[in-house]
Amino acid sequence: MTDPLAPGSVIGILGGGQLGRMLSVAAARLGYRTHIFEPGAAPAAHVAEMVTTAGYDDLDALKAFAEQVDVITYEFENIPTEALDALEPVRAIHPNRRALAVSQDRMIEKAFLSDLGLRTAPFAAVDDEMDLSEAIAAIGLPAILKTRRFGYDGKGQARIAEPEDASSALAEMNSAPAVLEGFIRFEREISVIAARGANGDVACFDPGENVHRDGILRTTTVPAAIDAELTAAAKDLAAQVLEKLNYVGVMGVELFVTEEGLVVNEIAPRVHNSGHWTQNGCTVDQFEQHVRAIAGWPLGDGSRYADVQMENLIGEDLLRIPEIAREPGAAIHLYGKGEVRAGRKLGHVNRVIQ
Amino acid sequence: MTDPLAPGSVIGILGGGQLGRMLSVAAARLGYRTHIFEPGAAPAAHVAEMVTTAGYDDLDALKAFAEQVDVITYEFENIPTEALDALEPVRAIHPNRRALAVSQDRMIEKAFLSDLGLRTAPFAAVDDEMDLSEAIAAIGLPAILKTRRFGYDGKGQARIAEPEDASSALAEMNSAPAVLEGFIRFEREISVIAARGANGDVACFDPGENVHRDGILRTTTVPAAIDAELTAAAKDLAAQVLEKLNYVGVMGVELFVTEEGLVVNEIAPRVHNSGHWTQNGCTVDQFEQHVRAIAGWPLGDGSRYADVQMENLIGEDLLRIPEIAREPGAAIHLYGKGEVRAGRKLGHVNRVIQ
């Protein structure tokens, strides 16, 4: 194993949203400085030493950024391949490109998970109307049509309940390659925030139980209402994924709990919204765990010492801050985003349950 | 009560050391941006949006800084009066100047505390040899001669055990006005981190028990080994001080526990090293509590949900990081200071005790 990144080194972070912001704070806590690369407004820059405002197609800016940092990580998986091609010859990127390639494309992701022997929703690639009618015949309805790439928070998705919904769903894909996913009847959705260190150690936080509304995560509650056996199975599954990818860093693994066992919904090669509860229930949270991994530190103690419910503050939820500020046990985390917009994640609150 | 500071407002922080750094992170968590004013190296700037590098005698820089921020606070009490005179006409400063005036001068501080009916060490002003011999006659030996102003971490102090130590002790003061303090026989030193909101509410964290070495705080442990009655008395005392000063913000109150009750050692009108444990034992830590107060928020829930021992990492203690990084329950906080120097505070570790 190589030595940890020297104190005072600079961690480059692609993406300047709330995840980059909380990563930057964690990096500082371990004695590192950070440099944010972000094309748009960057709330992460409020807590970073340096910021580059440039597009992912600005190869000169990317190269200059890479030269100014000691290691590169990212807060989102949809980084264009050309940008990675510009960065990687200059500095190491963690998690690695294999993890990005797998998670950037729902077809590749599902094929990867299936190859590992893990269960996913039934799926089929859909490029045109003929693919779609074949996929519907094979998978059945209801089903969900999703773009293969660039989907997040329920965007790029269309539900097909009846055969006559098919053509409008396909139109919503805007000619982008898509995948039809069979509908999973699940009891609950959980996620495992898993970390793998540079030395190959794996550590998982306790699974949280997620509730979504309109395709956006609303709450994560730990512990999830699952037994010890299922908890262990969920962590084992996540560890398998990390090891297969030779992964370094934190990954979010979303799982459905079904009558037939665990089904993988999706994996995200980064810190994850459903892991925000770790900020107030663990000695080492998901952000520090990620920094530890990519900086070559040993993984930290992520054992849970409190029950927590995380609630996302979305759009006008922000108006409830004065009330939440008075609530005992409520830890508020705001993202410093200028504009309140419907459906926009503006903060979260972790409620510590004694 | 006025409205809270609007989201996205800028909090100006005088001083760019570790306290300013942790204040800056707390401010960001509540949706604020920060601007650090610091003459020297500023590790706080790693997690702040803006930084002004200028001296406290640069009145133009101070004025420009004040105009760019919405409220001013500070991480240390030794701000020159001239600097305050330049800042205050432009923006509000919290905590207020009365609190600064009292804590900047040990004589004024002791007189203030005595007027409140609180016990302090016996004390007498010492400007020259005659004062000193009179003070020794009145107070007795052993005693400690301290500069009235600008002392910290044991600096500007000389112990007088025998009468013949007097002249060398006085020489150490470098002609600065001084104060002789009688020696207090104490069972333990505790400190109360107390906060007062803009609405007059007062909240105190549980008292921590401090151990010093070479004049520098080494550890703070909560809970302190004191009974409920003494805990209540310590909190009441701190509340009295805050109310008398019409204080807004967090204050550190150091107390000796003696056979005759509580004796006030000193007060610091800012977040305090002995309050760092709150980062890992409370939903709202001392840094956020301070930001809440100066931004006009309600005070947060500072109740303790874990036992914690905070250990300062001083000088070569930093070499123990690889070992501490492997310790279960250890939360590491490094300050991003470039140079490892003996006696320099470089970080701390909070050990959560289950």
TrEMBL record, chains A, B:
On the tree of life, the source organism's domain of life is Bacteria
Its Enzyme Commission number(s) read 6.3.4.18
* Catalysis performed (reactions): 5-amino-1-(5-phospho-beta-D-ribosyl)imidazole + hydrogencarbonate + ATP = 5-carboxyamino-1-(5-phospho-D-ribosyl)imidazole + ADP + phosphate + 2 H(+)
- Which pathway does the record list? Purine metabolism; IMP biosynthesis via de novo pathway; 5-amino-1-(5-phospho-D-ribosyl)imidazole-4-carboxylate from 5-amino-1-(5-phospho-D-ribosyl)imidazole (N5-CAIR route): step 1/2
EC class of the enzyme, as a word: ligase
Which Pfam family is an annotated match for this chain, by its short name? PurK_C
GO biological process assignments: 'de novo' IMP biosynthetic process
What keywords sit in the KW lines? ATP-binding, Ligase, Nucleotide-binding, Purine biosynthesis
> What PROSITE patterns does the record point to?
ATP_GRASP (PS50975)
Entries under InterPro entries matching the protein: ATP-grasp (IPR011761), ATP-grasp_carboxylate-amine (IPR003135), ATP_grasp_subdomain_1 (IPR013815), PreATP-grasp_dom_sf (IPR016185), PurK (IPR005875), PurK_C (IPR040686), PurT/PurK_preATP-grasp (IPR054350), Rudment_hybrid_motif (IPR011054)
- Tell me where in this chain the ATP-grasp domain is found: 110-295
For ATP, which residues are the binding ones? 106, 146, 151-157, 181-184, 189, 212, 265-266
Q: What are this entry's molecular-function GO terms?
A: 5-(carboxyamino)imidazole ribonucleotide synthase activity; ATP binding; metal ion binding; phosphoribosylaminoimidazole carboxylase activity
Q: Does the keyword Nucleotide-binding feature in the UniProt annotation?
A: yes
Q: Can you supply one Gene Ontology CC term for this chain's record?
A: cytosol
> What does it do?
Catalyzes the ATP-dependent conversion of 5-aminoimidazole ribonucleotide (AIR) and HCO(3)(-) to N5-carboxyaminoimidazole ribonucleotide (N5-CAIR). Catalyzes the ATP-dependent conversion of 5-aminoimidazole ribonucleotide (AIR) and HCO(3)- to N5-carboxyaminoimidazole ribonucleotide (N5-CAIR).
Q: In which family does this protein belong, per the annotation? A: Belongs to the PurK/PurT family.
What assembly does the database describe for this protein?
Homodimer.
- Its name, as the record gives it, is N5-carboxyaminoimidazole ribonucleotide synthase
